[in-house]
Amino acid sequence: MALKKRGKTWHTHFFVDGIRYRQSLETSDYRQALANEKDLIALAKVGKLSASRQQIKRLPFAEAAEQFLADRIPHLAPLSVRTEKERVRAINKVFGPVTVSRITPADVQKYIRKRNAAGIANATVNRDLDIIRGVLKKAKRWHLFADEIHPLPLRQKIGRALSFDQKLRLLKVSASRPEWQTASWAVMLALNTTMRGCEIKGLRWRDVDLLNQTLTVGKSKTEAGERVIPLNADALQVVMALYERGKQFKDVMPEHFVFPACEAGHIDPTRPQTSWRTAWRNLTRVINCPACGLLQSPGATCTNESCRGDISKATSPLAGLRFHDLRHHAITELAESQASDSTVMSIAGHVSPKMLAHYSHVRIDAKRKALDSLASRQNTPKQEGYDTNNDTNPTFRAESESTDNAQVPDLSGFNLVELVGIEPTTSSLRTMRSPN
Fold first, then answer.
1. For the segment 146-199, what is each residue's pLDDT rounded down to a tens digit?
2. 221 lies in a domain?
3. Domain of 83, in residue numbers
4. Are 235 and 359 in contact (CB under 8 A)?
């Protein structure tokens, strides 16, 4: 608690539950100021006094950001709370001690330029701006910045779909080493269920129905992500392998995680695995020696003593692949199989309108390729055959002759097919991706 006289009026500032209150006591009498301060503290303790926006603009940015974040925490997930606090720490390095009312649009623009020059991604800078904008709005000062401060442009990247050869390489490489086994199982689930990485990590055994061969995604990125996904043969095989592994360490309980935490060789099924980043980074970067074909990490020379070839320029076709791209690839295969938008969304959960527009183009391309194949068949000379069921039938020959006399257009150069033959369907996501 502290009293300070500004002009002829006493002001106070004090803390209650970590929140700082600064307010005029509206009196020039010291004794009355002490009484008014006690009343304000009492109101603050019972939650009937809040730091007004007028007070926030007089606070250092660090304290104002702390109040802003305290108001947001009830609406955020635990991971988002941690991320927001990290962003606030980065902003406080520049604006922390500066009074909110003294921050100008030029200061914010300078901050943006500095972060951009440091190589920080535009999306990260924009999230920093969300914090700054929130504090300024709370202080009723954002209207002074709105016309000059705008979010940085973002690269519009929908995702990456694998070619047939790339998919085969990913499946083969991920299963080639024991230390990549968990990542390999996660890859198979993502490719055959469209699940996100966070959904796979949060999967519990109570979400898996082996009798009906389905799994339920109960906690996802959005509410629309909650869904029931049927397990095809490949996904079911992975789930059974994980179940057998779980029984080796401890009894599998419904509340246990399908992908349990593993630290220093100790598996704790009551906690989820946090990441397979190291395994994913390694398996997407490994290369084959151009001379002997040995699978190895990038380097200058081949590790094979009998080869020692130059591998400095060799790169992996999977370099730069994100785990989230596997979800994009699975949805692309669904689109190429002529699945409707409602079917795609029921399997994949939330799909943005932009993503659906992209997948509609995928479907058009698949249809065009199917029809182009018909055109190529029409240009191929048709070999004459002998039909014993019709050519030896006198009635058929008489009808044929009468048809010729009626001058029916000659269709012998066309290869007519049934409608269902235009786009053959497949039963597994594993076989839906076209080679190109």
1. 899 999 998 766 678 899 999 999 999 999 999 999 999 999 999 999 999 999
2. yes
3. 61-144
4. no
